[in-house]
Amino acid sequence: MIVKHPVKLGLVCLARTTYDHHAAETLYKKIRAQVSLIENVQWEWIEDLVISQEDGIAAAEHLSTKALDGLVCISGTFHLGHLVLQLKRRIDLPILLWGLPELPYDGGKIRLNSVCGVNLNASNLYKSGYDDYSVIIQDEIDEDWIDAIRIIAALKQAKIGIIGYRADGFFNVGVQDNQLFGATGALVDHYELQDVYDYKVTEEAVQARHKHILETFDVGTLSEYQIERVSSLAAKLDGFYKEKGLSALAIRCWPEFARDFGVSPCAAMSLLQSEGLILACEGDIDGAVSMIAHKAVGAETPFLFDFSQVDFTEDFALFWHCGVAPCNLWDGVCTRSLDTYFAGGKGVTADFVLKSGERSVLRIDSARGEYRLFVQKAEAIPMEKLLKGTYMKVVFDRPVREVLDLILDNGLAHHSSVVYGDYIKVMEYLAHIKGWKVIR
Predict the structure, then answer these.
(1) What pLDDT is recorded for position 106?
(2) pLDDT category, 344, cuts 50, 70, 90?
(3) Smallest Cα–Cα separation from 145: which of 290, 11, 286, 1?
(4) How many angstroms separate the CA atoms of 187 and 119, rounded?
(5) Domain end position, chosen among 101, 120, 141
(6) Residue 345's pLDDT band (cuts 50, 70, 90)
(7) Residue-wise DSSP of 200-213
(8) What band does 343 get if pLDDT is binned at 50, 70 and 90?
């Protein structure tokens, strides 16, 4: 079952008695009932309207003790400008400024003037040097904003492991650990490849993986030794990941892995990613961060791909990797197999076409001392199984040449996370809150 990352949010409704605060109170009660139904959100709300400066101070004092991830401030009516600043002073977290649509006029007087309250708050925050506020004017909360807070919370709690190092020569996926921590709160722990090779697992765990592999893949081209090696590695990676309490694991998957362990990790990674583990190829920590972001919003089994081929005439791209995509994303048409087409016959990889459908692409990428965010919509379309590895044919809502130029002109790393569904707006919220440039 796919679940979104849990968050705790504060909720207040600001008002002024010179406007229809009784109507605002009624609307606020309805809002509390609505938001309480949202998946995996714990709400800490101030039940009464916040009207006076004293109310603002009391609300800030109370909510500052609740270990919140974000704060929602409803302008029930126009209100004092002190209130949001009093809250922000004690609760320095991302804020959603929520304006309510105006009610029908009553006796020729505007009843809420909520939008003006939002304008006041936005101006006060901006002129105070804060940029981590977002604004909506609507009847219901924007769950994409909540999902952006889920990502921020997930990354603050993330423990990312890297075994070995980045792949040989892949300088562009290297990260500065302290910069990553400063930008996201994620911590990186380093392990040696030998730590995984030597990790102890039971024979029962290996046999369970062996059975799973035979049920999932056509293994007709593999030797029994290779199947055993993949089974053993799947059990080792699974146990290691969970014992270390990891949110993600980046792996130096070549050149030493196949030589020293007997097989490459691709097939084992395909199996484990289908079960929800975040595994990044080639030691790509920023790629792992991107996949954590996708997982936090409930996206199904994110994985990394290479932007491997473009066809400017037919206007499509090939998203390919050597054979590591989650096996649950198979198109259900082609033969889902394991093969040994590289590393001198030791590169045991998954081979299949991925299923068709709407896709969202994300790369949270560090460069020149800062983070930026690449997002793109894509549509995977049916294709025949013509290659080794895991891959899909995709089209965009713009010419493929423009998408490729965006990647190349901005020096983005050659991996991105991809998932089924539309997760573009939530990532734009994330970039806005974090102050990251959006490349789109």
Answers:
(1) 83
(2) confident
(3) 11
(4) 37
(5) 141
(6) confident
(7) ---HHHHHHHHHHH
(8) confident
Residue among 431, 426, 362 nearest 145 (CA): 426
pLDDT value at residue 437: 98
Residues 192 and 127 reside in one and the same domain: no
**Does residue 241 lie within any of the structural domains?**
yes
Q: What are phi and psi of 260, to 5 degrees?
A: -90, -30
Cα–Cα distance measured from residue 182 to residue 179, given in angstroms and rounded to the nearest whole number: 5
The whole-number average pLDDT for the span 60-64 is 98
C-alpha dist (Å) from residue 55 to 52, 59, 91, 233, 340: 5, 6, 15, 59, 68
* 349-391 confidence digits (pLDDT tens): 999 999 999 999 999 999 999 999 999 999 999 999 999 999 9
Asked if 354 and 270 count as a contact pair (C-beta separation under 8 A), the reply is no
Distance between CA atoms of residues 319 and 62, nearest Å: 50
- The pLDDT tens digits of the residues spanning 164-192 come to 999 999 999 999 999 999 999 999 999 99
Contacts of residue 178, Cβ cutoff 8 Å, sequence gap at least 6: none
Judge if 133 and 187 occupy the same domain: no
Phi, psi of 207 (to 5 degrees): -65, -35
User: Is 147 a member of any domain?
Assistant: no
pLDDT score, position 108: 83
Tokens of 394: 């995709």
pLDDT tier at 347, thresholds 50, 70, 90:
confident
Beta strand extents in 328-430 (DSSP E only) = 337-339, 349-353, 357-367, 370-381, 390-395, 415-420
What span, in angstroms and rounded, lies between the C-alpha atoms of 23 and 77?
Answer: 9
Annotate 303-324 with DSSP letters as a single string: EEEEEEEEETTTTEEEEEESS-
CB neighbours of residue 190 within 10 Å: 12
3-state secondary structure of 280: strand
Neighbours of 201 (CB within 10 A): 18
Is the pTM higher than 0.90? The answer reads yes
Dist. CA 94–CA 437, nearest whole Å: 17
Mean pLDDT, range 219-235, rounded to an integer? 97
Domain boundary among 113, 141, 169: 141
Domain range holding 32?
Answer: 7-141
Amino acid at 179: Q
297/43 Cα distance (integer angstroms): 18
